[in-house]
Amino acid sequence: MNCDKIGKLIYTLRKEKDMTQKQVADLLNISDKAISKWERGLGCPDVSLLPELSQILGVNIEEILLGEMVINETVGGNMKKLTFYICPQCGNLITATGDAHISCCGKRMEPLAAAKANESHLLNIDSVEDELYVSSSHEMKKEHYISFVAYVTGDKVFIVKQYPEWNLQFRFHKLGHGKLYFHCSSHGLFYQLI
After folding, report:
1. Which pLDDT tens digit goes with each residue over 46-60?
2. CA distance 92 to 145
3. pLDDT band at 190 (very low <50, low <70, confident <90, very high)
4. CA-CA-CA-CA torsion for 113, 116, 119, 125, nearest 10 degrees?
């Protein structure tokens, strides 16, 4: 750990929050001299203080330990670059349009890689007036089901969450060309072109 880098980051984040050393120290139940010591690079926060310090400063513990913030480049917001994350513990669905460090249930999540749908995972897509009717005969049991379907175009995304024991059938308003992403709980993320 580089105490000098960590101290500079703590100082910068504290100033961004418009807080004094005393205010941060009071929230951590320590003396403001300890905060001053950290910011001057003369010591590092105790590991037991890191979770609370990260909450106060609004940053991940990992960034505090690295002593630097990793800032993404500005992304134009193209939804075609949408990335999906699914927590293996709780099934939480998270999306991002740029690089992200995402964690859930205490573990870092990796972005899902989409594969082109094969015969056993193709969804039925029928055009009905100005809507797309999506259905499937895919198994929908607790141990094997499609957890979500997302219709993604250049500037929009529509997500329909699915649950075990439900029949997979719903409608999307037709928006032109795009991709239909869907996640099988046993086999991962797939896509079909629309």
Report:
1. 999 999 999 999 988
2. 15
3. very high
4. 110
* CATH H-level superfamily of 3-66: lambda repressor-like DNA-binding domains (1.10.260.40)
β-pairing, 188-193 vs 115-116, is parallel
As a whole number of angstroms, the distance between CA 41 and CA 35 comes to 10
pLDDT tens by residue, 121-154 = 889 999 888 888 999 988 899 999 999 999 998 8
Q: Angle 101-102-103 (CA atoms, 0-180°, nearest 5)?
A: 130
The residues spanned by each domain of the chain are 3-66, 79-193
Cα 104 from Cα 94, distance rounded (Å): 10
CATH code of the domain occupying 79-193:
2.60.40.730
From residue 121, give the alpha-carbon distance in Å to each of 32, 36, 93, 167, 188.
59, 58, 20, 15, 10
Whats the size of the chain, residue-wise? 194
